[in-house]
């Protein structure tokens, strides 16, 4: 039989199952914190910057502007060159025999500052010092190989990597996600209890489900009334 739940009943279900919802949120948040803290390896990122310089010697502003626009368009090309096997293979060999070309490619990412001639080279690793060392090596080989590869020498180091920062896991975001998941789970459990609870709570439910009229009701018997009835029965037995 199809059954609908009113807004008042929804609020009542949430109120009665509030402790389940709160416990579920706390449990999921604690589980998420424990997982991120003890089972997820932290990752650190080091960044170096490369500048696409200007080759034109002419001081004419129109020539300079066209050269700058051409250099900005070349940024995408250089971004691909940085992750090319020619650059990463020689960098991986210098990093160490345990570093393969594929592994290094998975650690390196490249982006550029919008409408600028600056390229950012990122390296992510579980060891913060290794992240710094690897990004320096990749940047060095890019600056070394580019002149002979591109037949041009308009790249130079803008900022070398000296520090690295932790980028994952984000404990705060993870715990918020865990609390939200716990909220959803708690609400689902609350409504599941309501749906699968077959007990009658109102007279209207009896009429709606069983299609029979209610001919009478029995009120709740309190403990005081029960004790009073027992005392009366005891006095009657004594009189006999």
UniProtKB/TrEMBL annotation:
A GO-annotated cellular component: plasma membrane
Primary site of residence: membrane
Residue ranges crossing the lipid bilayer per the database entry: 18-40, 173-192
Key words, A-Z: Cell membrane, Membrane, Transmembrane, Transmembrane helix
UniProt xrefs under InterPro entries: Bact_polysacc_biosynth/exp, LPS_length_determ_N
Signal peptide positions on this chain: none
GO MF annotation list: protein tyrosine kinase activity
Protein location: Cell membrane
Topology relative to the membrane: Multi-pass membrane protein
Every Polysaccharide chain length determinant N-terminal domain range: 3-94
Domain of life: Bacteria
Family as reported in the entry's similarity comment: Belongs to the CpsC/CapA family.
Protein name per UniProt: Polysaccharide chain length determinant N-terminal domain-containing protein
Organism: Listeria weihenstephanensis
